[in-house]
Write a structure and sequence with these properties.
The chain is α+β, with helices and mostly antiparallel strands. The protein has helices at residues 3-20, 28-42; strands at 47-57, 62-73, 76-81, 84-88, 93-97, 102-106, 131-137, 141-147, 155-163, 169-176, 180-190, 211-214. Strand 9 and strand 10 (169-176) form a beta hairpin. 25% of the residues are buried.
Length: 216
């Protein structure tokens, strides 16, 4: 499995664990930080991230790096990672494989709150299904760990580093029991982008000759 596919699969997996876990007591200090972080992001016209992702696989003894970006506005988004662009307008998803010149159209389940289906959940996931702990505080940032309540799942924890001055996302760490770890470093965090009209819809005119597979 390629790094990109494994990254997407694990994000889906992690989000599912959080959604299915049960409520538990959490650290009030961590919760207050996450509430401010969430409120600022979700009140913005959009959330624009440019990131570098490092995937460490202890079993295969390899490490892969990729760069990506995402723009989120409510439940709509445009995600770009190597050889794949995904648009979602709140109803329909278009997944464009660049090298293959192929786009797959689908209607994701409304009950699917995974990162791929609803990336805005990253900013609200702390409200349900985890225990949050403030692990470290420096002059510039906080490090908060989120622990799923279901001890039988493959995820050990998610770490969020949040900047103090802007309540911005600096870093995410996903750590699993099987030794697979994903580190996402946010290189650019922008809450001032006003998305252009139809940004979250696949533009057929700009992609002439692309094979369309309609799975709706």
């Amino acid at each position: 499995m390629t790094t990109v596919k494994k990254f997407i699969s694990l994000i889906l997996l992690f989000a599912g664990y959080f959604a299915n876990a049960q409520n538990a007591q959490t650290d009030p200090a961590a919760n207050a930080i996450l509430d401010r972080f969430s409120e600022r992001a979700l009140n913005a016209p959009s959330i624009s991230l440019k990131f570098t992702l490092i995937a460490d696989d202890a079993i295969e003894r390899r490490s892969d790096t990729l760069a990506g970006s995402v723009i989120i506005s409510k439940d709509s988004y445009k995600l770009e990672i190597p050889n794949n662009i995904i648009w979602f307008d709140g109803t329909t998803s278009w997944s464009y494989l660049i090298a293959e010149r192929e786009v797959v159209i689908s209607t994701p389940s409304k009950n699917d709150n995974s990162f791929i289906n609803k990336p805005s959940e990253v900013f609200t996931m702390h409200k349900n299904g985890y225990r949050a702990r403030l692990i470290e505080e420096t002059s510039a940032s906080w490090l908060i760990h989120l622990y799923p309540e279901d001890i039988n799942n493959e995820l050990i924890r998610v770490g969020l580093t949040i900047g103090k001055s802007q309540n911005d996302l600096r870093r995410i760490e996903y750590r699993t029991k099987v030794g697979f770890v994903i580190y996402i470093t946010v290189n650019e965090y922008n809450l001032n982008v006003r998305p252009e009209q139809n940004l979250f819809v696949f533009d057929r005119a700009a992609h002439r000759g692309v094979d369309v597979i309609d799975m709706r």
